[in-house]
Amino acid sequence: MDQSNKLLSEAIQFIKECYDELGLSEDIKFKRITEIEDEINLTGTYSHTHMELTHGAKMAWRNNNRCIGRLLWETLHVIDAREIHTADEAYEKLLDHIDFATNDGNIKSTITIFPARINEYDPIRIWNHQLIRYAGYEMDGKIIGDSTSLEFTKMCEELGWKGNYTDYDILPLVIQEVGEEPKLFDIPKDLVKEINITHPQFDHFKRLNLKWYAVPIISDMRLEIGGIDYPMAPFNGWYMGTEIGARNLADSDRYNALPKIAEVMELNTKSNRSLWIDKSLVELNIAILHSYQKAGVTLVDHHTAAKQFKAFEENETKNLRPVTGNWTWLVPPLSPAATHIYHKPYNNKIKSPNYFYQMNPNQKDNKIKQSK
To answer: Is 207 a catalytic residue?
Structure first.
């Protein structure tokens, strides 16, 4: 099957499913498929209507096997930024996204969709993994900040950025137009809502100076709808507490907070049998939930998230849609056996539309060239 026929086949499959879900007539569906076929024959590609883009992005969230929060897929706010082609314009749109999604802590699930990939070329790309992320530095064999950001931080420094070498330096946005060098843009500090981590019982937690940002905005994944790829489509929901409390701040190769917590709690760290790791982990997660609630920032605990996912499964079954999922991502990293997910197998079949990982634009062997 050549590329045009493959694209048409994927487009037809999407249009049928999308229009059926929206309750549109067979005549409207047939007319739209004919329009798309004519456009592909003429140009080799086609453009989504705003309605198709909006519902397609929501379907992609619903189809993403790694997300436990899919119950709310229909609430996604879709910002159509396909007219944006310059880094400066994209920067303004991304700041708007951060501001809108943060909503002073009452977080809104949001996606901003930039131009589609054309003939294997990306009109515009962002290099960041997330719009908001802490820098990572290696000094004298020690890591300052977030170890997952070491490589990206070095790239930013090579492009002229200078951090303050603290554990919580906000990285700049790196945006690249087709055929141009990447540009650095700082995110205004007042746009980034951060939460200082305190504990409702252990006052000594304050001494640890732990904090995290409010909104996780994934920016390096590709949105695919009906055979069309959108390589720059940053999106966000809100955090599940364990993402911060059992991974970001807890992992030994990240912020490694558990030994410090054990110290302030005066736990016995000389023996694993004391379960000091487990005790520290639970108290850190209690602190995360407490701190985000105190700051008025949306956050879900893992037990509630699991119950919401069960409701999602029930809704999908009622709508005659098979439930797919990636068990290793769905199961919470804390008390997993206390959730129904732990005891249930899932079909990891990949459905379209969806969000996919893609090669970073800065990689030398990237087949998607950033040139005219």
So the answer is: no
